[in-house]
TrEMBL record:
CDD domains: WHTH_GntR. PANTHER family: MANNOSYL-D-GLYCERATE TRANSPORT/METABOLISM SYSTEM REPRESSOR MNGR-RELATED (PTHR44846), MANNOSYL-D-GLYCERATE TRANSPORT_METABOLISM SYSTEM REPRESSOR MNGR-RELATED (PTHR44846:SF1). It holds the Pfam family GntR. This is GntR family transcriptional regulator. Residues 15-83 form the HTH gntR-type domain. GO terms for biological process: negative regulation of DNA-templated transcription. InterPro entries: Bact_HTH_transcr_reg (IPR050679), Chorismate_lyase_/UTRA_dom_sf (IPR028978), Tscrpt_reg_HTH_GntR (IPR000524), UTRA (IPR011663), WH-like_DNA-bd_sf (IPR036388), WH_DNA-bd_sf (IPR036390). PROSITE patterns: HTH_GNTR. It comes from Pseudomonas helmanticensis. Keywords: DNA-binding, Transcription, Transcription regulation.
Length: 243
């Protein structure tokens, strides 16, 4: 968007100029004037093209930063934050959701192994103490941007070779005739550990969203426990409520 004049705040209005500009920029972002990861105009550009002070431009950008709409990369500039709007009423895998939103999904595998289950996994997957599980840990990416850390556990009887899973766990399960048809999902706020912060590129202690999902087959057998640690600045969860 080269012509910024439509975003000029109106100094005849009682609303502070920086708030007017922040709202105009927010509307332009939601309208698709800038794409995900595209550079935003700098404070200097906004100031010069809109005839406002750099303080006003800076405060407007800080509002967008607080909202998670943009992010600053030291030495590079300010960029549009990629965001995923995920409806809570539809069961879908990460890859399917990204493709529907126009992103290219990919993964970086950190761990794929057959091992013994934890006590919690025994209970959630209705396993016997001698049963083994396939445990997988990976970074989930959208257009090469790390969005989340995903840790999935399934019975080894369902998945004896976790190395065969590609980008989509659900597509793999569909392919072997074990589709997950329903799931229970819990969402809670956590603070990023040092390990998770380093993996997704945020400061330790930053708020993250933890989604815990238990997936079931048609006969109500639980076969999946997945913990997804999401960057909270990249996700919007949407629920439609009716009376």
């Amino acid at each position: 968007m080269n012509d910024l004049h439509a975003l000029r705040p109106d100094d005849s209005q009682p609303t502070p100029l920086y708030l007017q500009l922040a709202r105009n920029l927010e509307a332009a972002i939601h309208a698709g004037q800038w794409k995900s990861e595209q550079a935003m105009p700098s404070e200097r550009n906004l100031s010069e093209q809109l005839g406002i002070s750099r303080v006003t431009a800076r405060k407007a950008l800080e509002v967008l930063l607080d909202q998670g709409l943009i992010r600053r990369l030291q030495g590079s500039g300010t960029f549009i934050t990629p965001r995923l709007e995920q409806p809570l009423s539809r069961l879908s895998g990460f890859s399917e959701m990204l493709r529907l939103k126009g992103f290219v999904p990919s993964s970086k595998w950190l761990e794929r192994e057959i091992t013994l289950p934890t006590h919690e996994e025994l209970i959630r997957l209705s396993l016997s103490p001698n049963d083994k599980v396939a445990r997988m840990k990976r970074l989930r990416k959208a257009d090469d941007t790390v969005m989340a850390i995903e840790m999935s556990t399934l019975p080894a009887s369902i998945m004896p070779k976790p190395q065969l899973v590609g980008d989509s766990l659900y597509e793999y399960l569909d392919g072997i005739g074990k589709p997950i048809v329903r799931a229970l999902q819990h969402i809670q706020a956590i603070n990023a550990s040092d390990e998770f912060a380093a993996l997704v590129g945020i400061a330790p202690g930053t708020a993250m969203l933890l989604m815990t999902r238990v997936g079931y087959l048609e006969d109500n057998t639980p076969i999946e426990v997945t913990d997804t640690y999401c960057r909270n600045d990249y996700y919007d969860f949407v629920a439609e409520l009716r009376r």
